[in-house]
Specification:
- With 403 residues, this protein is α/β, with parallel strands linked by helices.
- The protein has helices spanning 9-15, 42-48, 64-77, 88-99, 114-126, 168-175, 190-193, 227-239, 246-256, 259-277, 297-303, 320-329, 374-402; strands at 81-85, 105-109, 130-134, 150-156, 181-185, 203-207, 221-225, 283-287, 310-315, 345-349, 364-368.
- The strands form two sheets. A seven-stranded mixed β-sheet has the order 1-7-6-5-4-2-3, sandwiched between helices.
- Helix 3 packs parallel to helix 9 and helix 4 (88-99) packs across helix 8.
- The chain binds pyridoxal-5'-phosphate.
Length: 403
């Protein structure tokens, strides 16, 4: 089915999901917008229903644009097939819904993306699906938390805000013999830096909104599955009428073509900016698994082939005013949600942890390094950090004065 299987990632990025001759030689798959699909006769209409999830039959099941994106991402991730969703959160929520029934139990990593935690605690809990959070440092010991109702173990590696890398091969080795599905959010690494299926994962989720789209102009989610789980995930999405729109899938395809080049630049620039930041007296620590001092650096080295451009930065203890001073002084870093676009972003962040220790001691920032020249980013951060340092010193002086 897929002519790019077996090729190297950058080649899949270029040739995956493309069939110029099917569109008169046009290089890119066009945006195919459709609700109704017309058939030449009734026999053709009736036989189209047999080819489940693979053919154009009604807009709600996708068009050539959707199929092209799904084919390319599945090939890149090394999975069987993919299903596209209108956002990353929609992919997470629908995959969990597809795999869990009332009475079932979910093991969820403590460092999961915040809105996914809320989905488990509220929506799943309302429907009688229980969630136990586990420490991201757990590997095979996770077996001690498995009950006879556990159906899914969910990983996010590295995890949100503090970027712990999980021992996914150890986790899948305890889940596989028990028939428990391992679902992993692979948004940070993308298939280029972490091959989820080669490590035993059953469902790999991408908030394609981030690096795959890469230009901050579309919401998109993708769930790649093994053959075993494909029908359950795709069937659930079809049953509920969930589908990404063709324009957004097209933006996903457009982003995919440059993903390799962009990620290498994000990594290189992040290393340059981090080298500088870690020398600064206002910085106490960085959370980025490619750094030798990071808690799960060894696992990152073993299982990943690169690091992307999102990391945590912990500053020396300071009042929130000083954080305002720093962030508001920046000219190149945008203030806003999401990440993975070509522009740099910064936000304060507050990890929610209930099953592991929050080891942060000072204010934590989440920084997305974009494609700007890293020296300009450093100059911007230098100006921001000097505002931060001045505000801290002022406060210190006033406190000393008051004593
Ligand atoms: C942003 C994000 C999501 C959600 O993606 P949306 O497209 O914004 O819904 C899921 N997982 C991770 C790790 C994310 O950072």
């Amino acid at each position: 089915m897929n002519k790019v299987n077996g090729l190297r990632p950058d080649t899949i990025l270029t040739h995956g999901g493309r069939d110029p001759q099917a569109f008169g030689g046009v290089v890119n798959v066009p945006v195919v917008r459709a609700s109704t699909i017309l058939y030449p006769d009734l026999q053709a209409y009736e036989s189209s229903r047999v080819e489940k999830f693979s053919s154009l039959r009604y807009g709600r099941y996708g068009t050539q644009t959707t199929f092209a994106l799904e084919e390319a991402v599945a090939a890149l991730d090394g999975g069987f097939r993919a299903t596209s969703f209108p956002s990353g959160l929609s992919a997470i929520a629908n995959v969990l819904r597809a795999l869990l029934r009332p009475g079932d139990h979910l093991l969820m990593v403590d460092t999961v993306y915040g809105p996914a935690r809320k989905f488990c605690d509220e929506a799943l809990a309302r429907d009688g699906i229980s969630t136990t959070y586990y420490d991201p440092a757990m590997g095979a010991e996770l077996v001690n938390l498995i009950t006879d109702r556990t159906r899914v173990v969910y990983c996010e590696s590295p995890g949100s805000l503090t970027f712990e890398v999980q021992d996914i091969p150890a986790i899948t080795s305890v889940c596989r013999p028990r028939g428990i599905a391992v679902v992993a959010d692979n948004t940070w690494a993308t298939p280029l830096f972490f091959q989820a299926f080669a490590r035993g994962v059953d469902v790999s989720i991408h908030a394609a909104t981030k690096y795959i789209v890469g230009h901050s102009d579309a919401m998109l989610g993708i769930a790649v599955t093994t053959e075993e789980y494909f029908e359950r995930v795709r069937g659930y999405a079809a049953e509920h009428g969930v589908i990404a729109g063709p324009d957004d899938c097209w933006l996903g395809l457009r982003g995919l073509r440059t993903l390799g080049a962009r990620l290498r630049q994000h990594q290189q620039s992040s290393e340059i900016v981090l080298d500088w930041l870690l020398q600064h007296p206002a910085v106490s620590r960085a959370y980025y698994p490619a750094l030798a001092g990071h808690a799960s650096h060894a696992l990152w080295r073993r299982d990943f082939t690169g690091a992307s451009g999102l990391f945590g930065l912990e500053l020396v203890p300071a009042r929130h005013d000083a954080i305002h001073g720093l962030i508001n002084a920046l000219k190149l870093f945008g203030i806003g949600s999401s990440w993975g676009g070509y522009e740099s972003l910064i936000l304060p962040s507050k990890p929610i942890r209930t099953a592991s220790q929050d080891r942060t001691t000072g204010p934590l920032l989440r920084i997305n390094i974009g494609l700007e020249d890293p020296d300009d980013l450093i100059a911007d951060l230098e100006a921001g950090l000097s505002v931060f340092e001045n505000q801290r010193r002022d406060l210190q002086r006033r406190m000393n004065h008051a004593q």
